[in-house]
Amino acid sequence: MARLLARFRRLERRRPAAHKAMMVWDLGKAMRRKEEFESARLIDFAFRQRARALRLLIGALGLGGTEPAAPEPAAPGQPDPGATVIALAAELAVLPDALVVERLAELSGLDRDAVAAHLPACMAEARRQVIAERGDPSPIRLG
Fold first, then answer.
1. What does the pLDDT read at residue 6?
2. Cα(136)–Cα(128) distance, rounded to whole angstroms?
């Protein structure tokens, strides 16, 4: 028994102090994780705002319904206004704002300045709606 106890004490002295070390918090890793999360959240917000603004702008110019889908199916031979809005928004989603304004001016028959005048109001309304649905996009501060 004494030999076993002596052997245990020798092993105890050789054991590394890793079990006694304090846990270390990696601030850099936490900040990178926060940056990734915040970036993804802000990109998602910007996408939703732009998509909503395009839909509102299309509706304001009278190029389709304001809703993404018609409440009732369109009559045979008639285009579905909801499908028109979705198809047009999908076409415009990949274009920069200047080309969006040009394309909508072309489709609506209005001049470029008249279409461009609607854009800020639609962006503001879209931002208000998305904030009401998803919350404020301001970055969350580490406390």
1. 79
2. 9
Q: How far apart are CA 58 and CA 85, in angstroms?
A: 7
Please calculate the CA angle 14-17-19 and round it to the nearest 5 degrees.
115
Q: What is the pLDDT of residues 67-77, one digit of tens each?
A: 444 455 555 66
Query: Can you give the pTM of this predicted structure?
Result: 0.65
* Nearest to 69, CA basis, from 52, 79, 81: 81
Structural element, H or E, at residue 17: none
pLDDT per residue as tens digits for the range 72-123: 555 566 656 566 777 787 788 888 988 999 999 998 899 999 999 999 999 9
For residues 28 and 26, give the distance between their C-alpha atoms in angstroms, rounded to a whole number.
6
Structure-block tokens of residue 101: 């304004």
Residues 133 and 136: their CA atoms lie apart, in Å, by 9
The length of the chain in residues reads: 143
In the chain, what percentage of residues exceed pLDDT 70? Answer: 73
Give the number of other Cβ atoms within 10 Å of residue 54's Cβ.
24
Q: What's the distance, Cα to Cα, between the start and end of the chain in Å?
A: 55
Q: Report the phi/psi class of residue 109: left, alpha or beta, with left for phi > 0 and alpha for psi in -120 to 50.
A: left
